[in-house]
Amino acid sequence: xxxxxxxxxxxxxxxxxxxxxxxxxxxxxxxxxxxxxxxxxxxxxxxxxxxxxxxxxxxxxxxxxxxxxxxxxxxxxxxxxxxxxxxxxxxxxxxxxxxxxxxxxxxxxxxxxxxxx
Length: 117
Hints:
mainly alpha; 434 Repressor (Amino-terminal Domain); 2 domains; 74% helix; elongated
């Protein structure tokens, strides 16, 4: 295992734990007391955080620091992928349903705006 492998595991785990807890980057950054761009850089393997920052991130995620460095098992990777795909599909379906509703009732709003009171 190389230093790059460790950095990759760290960034993947931060993102995975963040998504499991349904935190946005902004929410995790706020809870950990770091900036959003810095968290984004860590997740993209562009920055290496100070040990104190790792402790802040782990605390915000309600995990121990060592868990950030444990390589995910194949099952965890697969489960994360399946869950991510399911969430993406659900969000797309919700967006489509909302657009359909707006389209369906748009004529009512435009009619009420046009008619004098």
